[in-house]
Amino acid sequence: MFLDTLLHRTFGRPNGLLGRLGGKLMSRSKGEFAAWVIADLDLEPDDRVLEVGFGPGVGAERLAEAVPDGFVAGIDASPEMVEQARKRNAAAIGDGRVELRYGFADDVPSEDCVFDAAMTMNSMQVWPDAVAGLRELRRVVKPDGTVAVAFTHHSGQSKDELPKLLADAGFDEVRTGDRGDDFCAFAKV
Ligand SMILES: C[S@@+](CC[C@H](N)C(=O)[O-])C[C@H]1O[C@@H](n2cnc3c(N)ncnc32)[C@H](O)[C@@H]1O
């Protein structure tokens, strides 16, 4: 129980000193993983993409590289992570190409059908209501857009559970990809 709380404060929903440390640790190892997920999103240079649960902002940084003429929006439920991710992406934020805000997966502050794609990495397993969050991603992505839901092996998320969660959220076309122990579901809107 104590260990669960500690892990949650460090990585799940980073909070305080431990959370800041967790953000630093996550930022060291997630670049390649994010690049692998993004490569399969087939983004166009001017696409608009959402990331939910961006943590220290490595994924958002990679997304901004993938859409140099587009826009990356992100929300995360940890003020500590918003601060770290904004620092990491300061130049692109200054150029108006990236916007990172405090917010929750089940209440995305966007209108319907405004993004070409959405991505979430190692985050859904700690959302209070995964299906509500996935429904929100489906709502804000345009028809025919893709939602990528990715996990590393130590996230605690069951791969077998993913298709049902995505189906319950309204997705009917889902494929999965694997990279060693990492996995990602790509769901079409
Ligand atoms: C394990 S970290 C992963 C960070 C990053 N995506 C990565 O792979 O390195 C989980 C992140 O999801 C965020 N998060 C947790 N619950 C959330 C929610 N309900 N809505 C949005 N973000 C959430 C946390 O604040 C944290 O930054």
Could you give a short description of this structure?
The chain has 189 residues and is an alpha/beta fold. Helix content is 40%, strand content 25%. The chain has a single domain (29-188), classed as Vaccinia Virus protein VP39 (Rossmann fold).
Describe this structure in words.
The chain is an alpha/beta fold and 189 residues long. The protein has a single domain (29-188), classed as Vaccinia Virus protein VP39 (Rossmann fold, 3-Layer(aba) Sandwich). The protein is 40% helix and 25% strand. The chain is built from eight helices and seven strands, in the order αααβαβααββαβαββ. A seven-stranded mixed beta sheet has the order 3-2-1-4-5-7-6, sandwiched between helices. It starts with a helix and ends with a strand. Residues 11-14, 26, 30, 52-55, 59, 75-78, 81, 104-105, 121-123, 126-127 line the site of S-adenosylmethionine (SAM).
Strands, helices and their partners?
Layout: H1 2-12, H2 16-29, H3 31-39, E1 48-52, H4 58-66, E2 71-76, H5 79-88, H6 90-94, E3 98-102, E4 115-121, H7 130-140, E5 141-151, H8 162-168, E6 173-179, E7 182-188
Parallel strand pairs: 1-2, 1-4, 2-3, 4-5
Antiparallel strand pairs: 5-7, 6-7
S-adenosylmethionine (SAM) binds at residues 11-14, 26, 30, 52-55, 59, 75-78, 81, 104-105, 121-123, 126-127.
What are the defining features of this structure?
189 residues; alpha/beta; Rossmann fold; seven-stranded mixed β-sheet; 8 helices; 25% strand; globular; binds S-adenosylmethionine
